[in-house]
Amino acid sequence: MTKSKTKIANLAVKMRAPGPVANAFRALLPAGLLVLASCSRSTHADTPPDPPVVATVAVAQAIRQDLSHVLEIASEFRPYQEIEVYAKVAGYVKKINVDYGSRVSLGQVMAVLEVPEMVDELERSVAATRQAEEQVTTAEAELRRAESVHDVTHLEYTRLAAVMEKRPGLVAQQDVDSAFGKDQEAEAKAAADKSALAAAQQELQVTKANERKVRTLLAYTQITAPFPGVITKRYADTGAMIQQGTASHTQAMPLVRLAQTDTLRLVIPVPETDVPRIKLGERVDVTVTALNRTFQGHVARFSDQLDLDTRTMHTEVDVPNPNLVLVPGMYATARLILEQSPHALAVPIQAIKREQDRTAVFRVKRDGTVEECPVKLGIEAPSQVEITSGLQEGDLVVIGDLNALRPGEKVLPKMVSEGSAKGRS
Questions:
Q1: Which CATH number do you get for residue 123?
Q2: Are residues 195 and 132 part of one domain?
């Protein structure tokens, strides 16, 4: 093509030159141009067109494998229960037997308070009880004497009344009336003594109740552990004045903080979409990175109500800690298997195209073109998703940027490994 242009330029120069040679060139010019144009068309016709560009796409094969829907949430351990231990009575710390990290058992004495005035009160209540017991004894004796007198007077009146009835006039009416009066008087006295005995017995019950109360309060001077655990904080030392923990008008100071750690709680916020799958007693694998160990727990309780701010449900996992290896505050990852589907038809999750409530994949046909296939999904694992309908085992699906493809487009499929498919986002 370049040589033809050069020849035409040379001819133009010669035509402009004067003389017979230029005239001859002018006569031959049309024929030459026809020859050059014919050569040019022949050159363009012999050049083949550029082949169309075929895009290379990453594909994966739909295969059968076991899938599971796993929920993994990081959280931190909490004690099974934790309390501040207050004194029920006010007093001075006479002795404290625990300190930071002390392990205590149920009912173990952690501290002893000194309350001298309460010892005096107990002595007074004991004396009052003994006095009441003596009063009951006296009342019982008075009642027995009154009942005896009443028995005699009643017998006397009964005999006189019987004689009076059988042999009138043998006994004076005055004697009968006098006997009757003494009988009534003795009966009233017995009734009064019986009431006095009942009152003395009630007074005895009151004094005994007061004594039990003082003894109970005195027992509170020994502060015991309400459950087995570990002392996580100590607030008072020997000689410190401890206020009564039940008094609302005083700012009472606790003695110690006690935490139960033989079983720990792991609180996990379950997302709203997974709430229907949570069941009590489900096994949970708890991985503690700091210890490089996995422990077994179970779903022990949940609130059965969503938090309106986070749209999650408060769920607690109990993890046994008999050897006290775990410490409250440690971070852990709870792994809960919510669903399982063995031998499921699965593709990489990057192969799914989602549009509102519709899901599809791009399947590569045998001729190298792609077609969009609507599919229904089952369990979604972290990297794989179950296909319940729409694909056959062995089908090739495109993974990666699906928005750049159009149905019917010819592509060059390139198979990627399972690990590569997992690494794509």
A1: 1.10.287.1700
A2: yes
